[in-house]
User: Fold this.
Amino acid sequence: MSTATSGSSRPTTFVLGGLSSISAKLLMALTGTGLLIFVAAHMLGNLQIYLGQDKLNAYAKFLKGMPLLLWSARAGLIATFGLHLGLAVYLRRQNRRARPQGYVVDDPVETSLASRTMLTSGLVIFAFLVYHLLHFTLGVTNPATHSLTDAAGRHDVYSMVVLSFRNIYVSGAYIIAMLFLGLHLSHATSSIFQTFGLTGNASRGWYQKLGWAVAAILMIGNISIPVAVLTGMLGLPEGVAQP
Amino acid sequence: MKLTLNIWRQQGPNDTGQIVSYPAKDLSPDMSILEMLDKLNEELIAAGEEPVVFDHDCREGICGSCSMVINGVPHGPQKASTTCQTFLRSFQDGENIYLEPFRATAFPVVRDLMVDRSAFDRIIQAGGYVSANTGGAADGNALPIAQQTAEDAMDAAACIGCGACVAACKNASAMLFTAAKVSHLATLPQGQVERSERARNMVAQMDEEMFGSCTNQGACSAVCPKEISLDWIAKLNREHIRSRVAVST
Assistant:
C-alpha cells in the first residue's frame, strides 16, 4: 500500500518525554475521574442548603475545622486540575499537528457535539472556576455577602449563597457554566471507561447512558440551587437583611 | 445521470493544491466512483489535460487502496464499503460531489487524491507479526484454538489497512488500525510470546508517525469498510497498560 515517501520534510517526533499518546490519555482519564468525584462530592455538600441555614453552616465549619485535610485536598485538586488542563492542551496541540490541513467539506459522522467540543467546554469550566473561587472562596467579587456570620458566630455560607444568587447575572453565570459542565461530563464519563479499557461491545451503550445520567444529575443538582433562590424557594433566614 | 465533481488537484507533495470543478455527464448510476473517475480521466486525456491521480487496486472492496474522502466522509456515504464499492446510485442526479485526499501529517499527499500510507507499514513492521523459528511447519491442528477466540481474532484481522479511520478521526488518530493489528495477534496463542513488546513498539511507532490521539468519538469505526469495533481500542488500551506493568517480556 506504499508509494514513495516524502519523509525528509516532515517534522520530527513530538512525543513528550517518552509519554505515549495512550499514557497521556490514561492520565487524562485518571485526573478526570478525580475531578468527577470531587464535583459529585461538592454537589452533595452544597445540596445541604435545602436542609437549612444551620446544617449548611455547620458543614462549612466542619470542613474549615480540618485545616490540614482541607489544604491537602485543595493542593491535590489544584495539581489534578492543572495536570488535566495541561494534558488537554498538550494533546490538542499534538492532534492539531496530526492534521494541519482540514477538509473542504467535512461531515463529522457519528461523533457527538460534546465529544467535539471537550476543550472548549473545559476552558469555559476553567474560566468559571476562577470566577467561582473569587466569588465564594476568596470573597473578592461580592465582599458584602462574604463577611456575614450567623447566630452561632459561624461564617454564614447559607445567606452568602442566597444573597449572591438573588442577582440574576450571578445566577445566570452559574447556570450557563453548569450547562457546559453537563456537556463536558456527558462525553467524559463514558470516555473514562473506554480509555481504561473497561468497555465491551455489549456494555459501551450502557456506559454512554451512565455518562448522560451522571452529567444530568450533576448539572440539574447544581442548577437547582440558583433556581431555588430565584424562585424564592430558598429564602433568607430571620435577621438577615438584603444589603 | 449528471454530477458536478469538485476534485482536489495537487501537482506534488509540496504544491498547495486546490479544488477544481468538472461537470460530468452521461454517467450510469451503476458506475462506481472509480469508474466515474476512469471516465473523467479518459476525457481529460483526450482534451490534453492531466488525469486525476488516485489509488486503486482490487476494485472489489478487499485491498483498501482506494483512499479518498467523498463529501466529507472517507469512502463515501455508503456504510461498510470502500470507494470502489460506492456507486453513483448513492447520489442524486445533478449533485455536487467533493473528492479530497485523506488528510493527515502521517499520510502526505503524493498527488491529487493519492496519499502515502507507508506509515501503516512501519507500524506493522514495529511488531505486527509473529516470529517463527525455523524448522518444519507445525501441524495444522497441533495448537487448539477455541472457536470464539478464532472468531474474535478474525474480527480484528478483518482490518484492510485502508486508513479511513485516520481520515475520519478529527485527530487523525490511527488507534483503530493499531488496535486491530495489536489485538488480532494478542487474542491468539501464537501472539503471546511477543505480546507486551508488540503493544509497546506498535504504539510507539504510531506516535512516532505523528498520528493524533484517540478521543473516543467513534467516527473511525463508523466509516470503517470492515466495521472494526471500538472494542478493539478498549482492548489496545488494556494491552498498553498490560505492556507497561508486565514483568515477563
Remarks:
- Chain B has eight helices and seven strands.
- Chain B has two domains: 3-110, 117-131+145-245.
- Chain B has a mean pLDDT of 95.
